[in-house]
Amino acid sequence: MGSRTAIDLFCGAGGLSEGFRQAGFHVLAGQDIDATFGRTFEQTHAGASFVHGPIQDVSATDLLAAAGVKKGEVDVLVGGPPCQGYSVYNHQRGIDDPRAGLFKEYLRLVADIKPRWLVMENVSGITSIAGGGIVREIQAGMRKLGYRVDMKLLKAEEYGVPQERRRMFFIATCEDECPILFPTATHGPELEPFVTVWDAISDLPSLQNGQDAGSTKYRRTPQNSYQALLRGDQKLTENHSAPRLSKVNMDRMQHIPPGGSWRDIPFDLLPAGMKKAKRSDHTKRYGRPNKTDLACTVLTKCDVHWGAYIHPTQDRSFSVREAARLQSFPDFFTFAGSRTEQYVQVGNAVPPLLGRAVAESVLEADEMRHSVSLSSGNTGKLYAV
Fold first, then answer.
1. Positions marked active-site
2. How confident is the model over 153-169, as a mean pLDDT?
3. Are strands 117-123 and 148-155 parallel, antiparallel or unpaired?
4. Whole-model pTM?
């Protein structure tokens, strides 16, 4: 069989589709409501077309035309309907949030594209909405369309991503002979060691608070296989730009050692709202990770007030490029738009290395379809029932 093909819905910058590309898929097209994100997608996905517009206004005909294929010819439809409606970081989350219904648009397009495989991802918080109602509705919708489906929570750090991040993956197929497989962890106890914050960023140039390095040479040669992998043949860094923090935040940082957090800030320097906080609260706020730590979950802005986003050795927050490294984006990804938009693209993405692991499990199942009985056991794998 030749190269498998994929279309990416809600593609953003294209983290999930980049993972599929690394696994050998030909990404034909991506769709997103944000034109700036589409610029990033187009310049980092050679040969792929970008379909701009809200998903409600996009037809399967639009996508198939952009991809240059017909109904039934696409191998995988991937996508992550925007997750703000169900994120654990959104305390007002609920099924009434209009974004929580965007998975129905994904299913609408499945019916008219009829790919062989479906890969949908979302935040872990999706399981808690309406007592699991959205998860059941997604699964029921896929089954109604003729797909067998399974789901599993995956931990990004177990697949070589230097960050604690949880994502729920739904994998479905309309191929009767195919098992549904999920990737087996490669990193962790008794496996490859976790990739750390310092493993990810130690070769990048030093920055001052608020500095944009522009296109500049790396600080040093690759120090490990992770840096070598992400650098590829790049000679210059891009998007290595840190936001300018206020004087009071700079004063606070002086008191925070590696491994420290808001608890190390003198009481009189604490933000007013945190002066009433219990010592057990806000454990990641104003955090400065140790070099040997995993990063905390990269969000849509590396705001030191909300997480451990202070550089281990420099008094500033993580740059866009450092956030991208912590998400496992290759360095050839140049993010379009303002710095704020760049952080959003990075934080919203599926880490490419996690996407690659999922893509490889789909390929493995596809190649097994004529030789594996669904009733056979397979350690570490999950089969749909």
1. 83
2. 98
3. unpaired
4. 0.92
